[in-house]
Amino acid sequence: MALPLYDFIYFIMFIFKTVKDIAAYLDAQRAQGKIIAFVPTMGALHKGHLSLLKAAQQVPALTVCSIFVNPTQFNNAADLEKYPRTTEQDIALLTEAACDVLFLPDVAEVYPDGRDIQEPYDLGYLESVLEGAYRPGHFQGVAQVVERLLRIVKPHKLYLGQKDFQQVAVLRRLIDIRHLDVTLESVPTTREPDGLAMSSRNRRLTETQRSLAGLIYQCLVSIQSKKGMQSFSVVQKECRELLIHKGFRPDYIELADAATLELLPDYDPSRKMVALIAAYIGEIRLIDNLVL
Ligand code: PAF
What we know:
The protein is an alpha/beta fold.
């Protein structure tokens, strides 16, 4: 009986924990002409992260993921402490998904001179609206860690999820103001069958909370479908009432210009728009958005 050529296929992923080691390895790869595609994460990986990796693998490129729960972007100590950490599982998922390199630094490696931001980033309007308004300092921390990671990995391409719509806008601005030589690719949101956007935080939902969480997406779809038929303020009120009735505590339900995130009082057919929602269910804060 002829034996199959391969019984199974297995992948090797290099794991680096220090800046010195990953920088040396990637410098050598770059010198050989490899394109480097980078997916920064905070771990607790799910299909959404894997879709970023898959997008990066289309290039084709040497794919680099990082797992680093960045303390400087949490404006709530309990949220940082409770952030899910599933490193063993994450390593298995990334290996199976054929990621080439994982950067797994500790806090001292990323912030050898302390975590203070020497000179705040000028993030402009983005820092005063939506997530910027509800999570003061959050985007400073995101910009700080992503700039550090980009200076370590020096990728040609950076992959981010569209679920964090405002984060993508902030990081475009970071690339611009810091003149970073990287192309940002924003990848569509991966959703559960009931529409819930995949997120590491979903693991913390109780069964009851999870059964309700798809409502946020249903509200976004309703905002989308009523475009040109109703005024936004009416739809916004309906969504707020529905969410509150089901036990959510909405921070915001807004309509914005998709390019600038300028808040819009009503639908404006001359612009590309995005609807954005942030709401607590129990102590878990969920965010989502839909481009109209
Ligand atoms: O989106 C995230 O997981 C984080 O904000 C990021 C971009 C990895 C920075 O810590």
